[in-house]
């Protein structure tokens, strides 16, 4: 076939394809006419001449734009609407369209979709798949829609600028996919049933207007992500269940409207917010905010009435003890329970968790036992100079014990047991401090004396010690995230540890067989599961890598040997603590001495 003939065939195929495409468009437009009956439309007139319709040319007759906004139309859209493959704009807002929204999938030229204020009843799965040119999706106030979840296929619409789906019965969490929308400026998802927290990826877009207020059940968690959303101009988060403090918004230099009312926010109103020069409207009503009454500039319309608990009704600082206790609460993220019970400018007037001296002037006891508080121990406790009893046990506190607390001369009891504290223990008078249940906490190592080995405190390696410090994340990876609260105690030497309620672990650099047994026992015959070796749920030991010698010990990958013997392996362990049969052979374990003799005989042979 010659070049001219090939070219001719190609042109014919192209024209044939265009003819088929034009026929598809004609079929869709004919169905649209039958269903909606827009004023001025007639089958006697070419559809490219109909009011609100634009085509690419009178020859190809490919529909590129449909604009039927506010035409008092009713009826259903044709199911084959996505056959209009050259469509760039679809504007149907302000009508009474009903029925299923037809799929818009794979309309790769579509840039804008306006479907607001209609009566659509459902959205098909994958409706927004393949909209690679989409910039605006606006479909708010379709109140008859069946519950639907956030369409994650929109990640293919990387040019998205506006996303508006308020009052559309959207439910579930807001997926963490907003890094896919670097140009996104407007997010309007108000009046739905969204739950969960604000996605961290909000900060990776260019959101200016964030309207996500009035969720039926309420979004929750903190609003800390706003700190990094520096393009914000308008934020509506009111009528949700957000907790925590108002973050530092000093980098949001264009923010003029901040609506946070009717949440459960706690803590102080930041000075950086009160000094933000761009602010015009701030609503903080009906939260549980504390501290001094906020003072904004004269040009700012601000409301903060309702359930907030500012220390005074007028501006000015709080009482010194109140200021100190609020600083202590701040180190723990301003727990809601404290905000609910600390509600005036006198800590000795029936504040919860607080006991004062007989004169009702000075705080002598702070008791936060078993409150599930997170955060750290604030150095501000040192400002409560009359403090005698400080109980912080059974929480989730982390970090070190502040050195400043050693200046509390009246302190007789300081109980921090069963937390996640770490670091060196400051020197308190004997009998004052209780630190049990904090496996990563340590005392200062004693200096070496004479020819003896240096004394190594649990969890530490003495200076110059050739042994390597163990990787706690690797050894107790089942805990995850650097959270070592399931590591119950360290043993000597420092590399040997007990990992939670599982069998004792021995690392390769821990050559000794003498272990301090775990203080929790099991009934006889019950075998413990080695979580550190288990990569998935299933039968105990499913992922154990290989047995080592002696046979009571097995090798768990690179984590080292794990004792699994009976009462004789090691000899000081309680019998109920160990499995009593070899996992590989099913035979009872030999006493440690007999097995060592067997090994020696094998080596000699």
TrEMBL record:
It is a single-pass membrane protein. The lineage of its organism: Eukaryota, Viridiplantae, Streptophyta, Embryophyta, Tracheophyta. Residues 1-23 form the signal peptide. Its main location: membrane. The keyword Membrane applies. Residues 592-605 have a biased composition (Acidic residues). PANTHER family: OSJNBA0070M12.3 PROTEIN, RECEPTOR-LIKE KINASE TMK4. Residues 443-462, 580-605 are annotated as: Disordered. The keyword Lipid metabolism does not apply. Keywords: Glycoprotein, Leucine-rich repeat, Membrane, Receptor, Repeat, Signal, Transmembrane, Transmembrane helix. GO terms for cellular component: membrane. Residues 449-459 have a biased composition (Low complexity). SUPFAM superfamilies: L domain-like. It is found in: Membrane. Residues 35-56, 321-357 form the Leucine-rich repeat-containing N-terminal plant-type domain. This is Leucine-rich repeat-containing N-terminal plant-type domain-containing protein. InterPro entries: Auxin_Ser/Thr_Kinase, Leu-rich_rpt, Leu-rich_rpt_typical-subtyp, LRR_dom_sf, LRR_N_plant-typ. It comes from the Eukaryota.
């Amino acid at each position: 076939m010659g070049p001219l003939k090939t070219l001719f065939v190609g042109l014919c195929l192209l024209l044939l394809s265009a003819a088929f495409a034009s026929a598809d468009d004609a079929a869709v437009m004919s169905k649209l006419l039958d269903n909606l009956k827009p004023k001025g439309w007639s089958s006697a007139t070419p559809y490219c001449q109909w009011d609100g319709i634009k085509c690419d040319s009178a020859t190809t007759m490919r529909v590129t734009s449909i604009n039927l906004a506010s035409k008092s139309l009713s009826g259903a859209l044709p199911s084959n609407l996505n056959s209009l493959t050259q469509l760039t704009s679809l504007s149907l807002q302000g009508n009474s369209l009903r029925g299923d929204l037809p799929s818009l999938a794979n309309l790769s030229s579509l840039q804008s979709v306006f479907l607001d204020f209609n009566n659509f009843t459902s959205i098909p799965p994958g409706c927004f798949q393949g909209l690679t040119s989409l910039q605006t999706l606006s479909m708010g106030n379709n109140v008859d829609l069946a519950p639907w979840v956030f369409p994650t296929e929109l990640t293919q619409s990387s040019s998205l600028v506006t996303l508006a789906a308020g009052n559309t019965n959207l439910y579930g969490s807001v997926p963490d996919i907003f890094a896919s929308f670097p140009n996104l400026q407007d997010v309007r998802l108000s009046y739905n049933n969204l739950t969960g927290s604000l996605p961290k990826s909000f900060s990776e877009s260019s959101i200016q207007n964030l309207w996500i207020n009035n969720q039926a059940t309420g979004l929750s968690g903190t609003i800390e992500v706003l700190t990094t959303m520096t393009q914000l101009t308008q934020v509506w988060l009111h009528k949700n269940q957000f907790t925590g403090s108002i973050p530092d918004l000093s980098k949001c230099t264009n923010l003029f409207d901040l609506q946070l009312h009717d949440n459960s926010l706690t803590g102080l109103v930041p000075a950086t917010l009160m000094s933000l020069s761009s602010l015009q409207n701030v609503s903080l009503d009906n939260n549980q905010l504390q501290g001094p009454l906020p003072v904004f500039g004269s040009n700012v319309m601000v409301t903060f009435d309702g359930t907030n608990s500012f220390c005074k009704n007028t501006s000015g600082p709080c009482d010194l003890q109140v200021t100190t206790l609020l600083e202590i609460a701040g180190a723990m993220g301003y727990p809601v329970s404290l905000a609910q019970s600390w509600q005036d400018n006198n800590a000795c007037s029936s504040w919860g968790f607080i006991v004062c001296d007989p004169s009702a002037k000075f705080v002598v006891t702070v008791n936060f036992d078993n409150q599930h508080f997170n955060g750290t121990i604030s150095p501000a406790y040192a400002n409560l100079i009359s403090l005698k009893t400080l109980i912080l046990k059974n929480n989730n506190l982390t970090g070190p014990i502040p050195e400043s607390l050693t200046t509390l001369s009246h302190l007789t009891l300081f109980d921090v047991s069963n937390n996640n504290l770490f670091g060196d223990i400051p020197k308190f008078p004997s009998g004052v401090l209780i630190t049990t249940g904090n496996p990563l906490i340590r005392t200062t190592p004693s200096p070496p004396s004479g020819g003896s080995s240096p004394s190594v405190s649990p969890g530490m390696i003495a200076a110059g010690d050739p042994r390597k410090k163990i990787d706690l994340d690797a050894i107790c990876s089942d805990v995850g995230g650097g959270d070592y609260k399931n590591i119950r105690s360290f043993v000597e030497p420092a590399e040997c540890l007990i990992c939670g309620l599982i069998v004792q672990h021995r690392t390769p650099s821990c050559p000794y067989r003498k272990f301090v047994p775990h203080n929790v026992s099991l009934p006889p015959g019950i075998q413990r599961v080695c979580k550190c070796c288990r990569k998935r749920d299933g039968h105990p030991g499913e992922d154990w890598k290989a047995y080592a010698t002696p046979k009571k010990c097995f090798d768990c990958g690179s984590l080292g040997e794990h004792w699994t013997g009976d009462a004789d392996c090691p000899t000081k362990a309680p019998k109920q603590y160990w499995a009593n049969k070899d996992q590989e052979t099913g035979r009872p374990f030999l006493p440690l001495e007999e097995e060592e003799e067997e090994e020696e005989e094998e080596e000699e042979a």
